[in-house]
Amino acid sequence: MVKKLKFSSCGHLRSDLVKDLNFGKMKHCHTWVFHSFNGVLVIGPLLLLFLVAIGSGYFYNAYSFPEPIVHENENRTSNLSGKCNFFDGNWVPDESYPLYNASECPFAEQGFSCLANGREDKEYLKWRWKPRNCEIPRFDVHEILEKLRGKRVVFVGDSLSRTQWESMICIMMTGVEDKKSVYEVKGRKITRQIRHLQVRFSSFNFTVEFYRSIFLVQPGAPPKRSPKRIKKALMLDKMDDISKEWIQSDILIFNTGHWWTPTKLFELQGLVLPD
Fold it and tell me: What mean pLDDT do residues 186-212 have?
């Protein structure tokens, strides 16, 4: 069984500044070494703030957490070391949230809209993610729109990635005057069956895309004499066949970590097999 995977695709990304963030630790981007299948490629703290907030919000809506305790003397600028662990923090109430209205966004799936499905209270929308030892800037949609001019942003993963992709589009649309200038390139509706979706912000000449690839690697035929319930094996040394389509992205955000668990996979004859 392959314990670590090394891919040298990072050199093909067009961005001048690409960082590989692994739980707050940065590395030079020459070779990708995956100790776990979690990763984020981003440019700038504002976009990272969006991803942390949206990703964490997915779980916040699904589970109940006790109200966090925030101390008044908490450092609101930055910690003394000059480093910030964006993943270590709490949800704090913020009356200025939410940053967009999902019911008014044509790219938000109704199935993921609590209000559209009958939820009456709105307090769950008024929470902001705050790192424990530092303060991160508020999401400035106009600044991000300008920074993304001429860029290609790509999300890769499962339904979690797709809802993050939808949320980013919706929040970016709040800064666009002509809403019709934002459209899915092929006029497709957002569904889980479509493997690739591409939304273009024509006024700013950039696209935000989604590719469905839950394991990021290629599936293959199961080994001989494997149980009948096994339909495929995962080829850990080969990237998904559609990976060649997202290589030329400027910003790449992907997730797959929660799929690599003993309840979903097991090892047989040196191969990792989906259960």
Answer: 92
